[in-house]
UniProtKB/TrEMBL annotation:
Naturally occurring in which organism (per UniProt): Hibiscus syriacus
Classification via CDD domains: Acyl_ACP_Desat
Enzyme Commission no: 1.14.19.-
Lineage: Eukaryota, Viridiplantae, Streptophyta, Embryophyta, Tracheophyta
Binding site for Fe cation 2: E137, E190, E223, H226
Function: Introduction of a cis double bond between carbons of the acyl chain.
Enzyme category, top tier: oxidoreductase
Protein name: Acyl-[acyl-carrier-protein] desaturase
InterPro entries: FADS-2_CS, Fatty_acid_desaturase-2, Ferritin-like_SF, RNR-like
Length: 351
């Protein structure tokens, strides 16, 4: 994998591909306008983002190759040792296939529509994630996609349109093609995804669908491994370059961590992600409290409060990150109240 920094590049076959994720670039203005009207809501269009990492920092990442092989790649499972979507779904080769599909649909009948809104949103996120552990994330999207199709509870064509819109829209997670920012983002995002899938598993069990709960738990376990890998990378960066790393941490938190599907659009609802997020908040799948919990976890995991020898900017970044959880805690109750009072929205995904 080539890590490219402006006109310079170096080879790193071992670092995860998220190090410098692809950012959408729509070329000349006229072309951008055309894509703007066909791929994304009028309020959103992606623009090229230059690399913000100083060129001299390349040497740090070059030096990590052997460390990555020993400490990170161990968290990536081979296809032979990985579960596959078919392990959880009716097998069309077997005589009992139709009976198993009927059983799946019968279990799905007892699950509320709002739960399926969240499950669809989770699946779309997995389907449209073009960077980072792609092979493993692909299984997640495949499994949830097939489950949703067999459940008979959703409009698959609308879901497929949403996926196409999202992939076409590209993404801008405010990482500036900077691996310091990228690995901060993925450390947070993978833990957030773990929390979300773990909570959907819990709810599925409460609704009586133990098979769906099993599916969500297996996906959550994968996300937990990914989280472990990325947090170890940042842990290493704090060890060898604490000043740059803590400033990157503060930078990402100032910009707020947005989920990979934040540009989702179904051709109808330009605020689809906000509406989906409100449902997730109401159900307790992913909440403002979870966001703050994750931040506190990372601050503790990386021992940010204990950093010494920082520059003036580094100390400011350290103070900001360490004080932010307390500020966010004050918003939790208000966010939950807003979500509960939000008007009921119909989703095109639900049949």
């Amino acid at each position: 994998m080539a890590l490219k920094l402006n006109e310079m590049s170096f080879e790193s076959p071992k670092l995860p591909s998220v190090a410098l994720p692809t950012m959408a670039s729509f070329g000349p203005p006229r072309k951008a306008e055309t894509l703007k009207t066909t791929l994304v809501p009028l309020r959103e269009v992606q623009v090229p983002v230059k690399h913000s990492m100083p060129p001299e920092k390349m040497e740090i990442f070059k030096s990590l190759d052997n460390w990555v092989e020993d400490n990170i790649l161990i968290h990536l499972k081979s296809p032979e040792k990985s579960w596959q979507p078919q392990d959880f779904l009716p097998d069309s080769k077997l005589d009992g296939f139709y009976e198993r599909v009927k059983e799946l649909k019968e279990r799905a009948k007892g699950i509320p529509d709002n739960y399926f809104v969240v499950l669809v949103g989770d699946m779309i996120t997995e389907e449209a994630l073009p960077t980072a552990w792609t092979a493993e994330e692909n299984r997640h999207g495949d499994l949830l996609n097939k489950y949703l199709y067999l459940s008979g509870r959703v409009d698959m064509r609308q879901i497929e349109k949403t996926i196409q819109y999202l992939i076409g829209a590209g993404m801008d997670w405010k990482m500036e093609n900077n691996p310091y920012l990228s690995f901060i983002y993925t450390s947070f995002q993978e833990r957030a995804t773990f929390v979300s899938h773990k909570n959907t598993a819990k709810l599925a069990g409460e609704y009586g669908d133990t098979e769906l709960a099993k599916i969500c738990n297996f996906i959550a376990a994968d996300e937990k491994r990914h989280e472990t890998a990325y947090t170890k990378i940042i842990e290493k960066l704090f060890e060898i370059d604490p000043d740059e790393t803590v400033r990157a941490f503060a930078s990402m938190m100032r910009k707020k961590i947005t989920m990979p599907a934040h540009l989702m659009y179904d051709g109808r609802d330009e605020n689809l992600f906000d509406h989906f997020s409100a449902v997730a908040q109401r159900l307790g799948v992913y909440t403002t409290k979870d966001y703050t919990d994750i931040l506190e976890f990372l601050v503790d995991r990386w021992k940010v409060k204990e950093l010494i020898g920082l520059s003036a900017d580094g100390r400011k970044a350290q103070d900001y990150v360490c004080e932010l959880p307390l500020r966010l805690r004050k918003l939790e109750e208000k966010a939950q109240l807003i979500a509960k009072r939000a008007p009921s929205i119909s989703f095109s995904w639900i049949s």
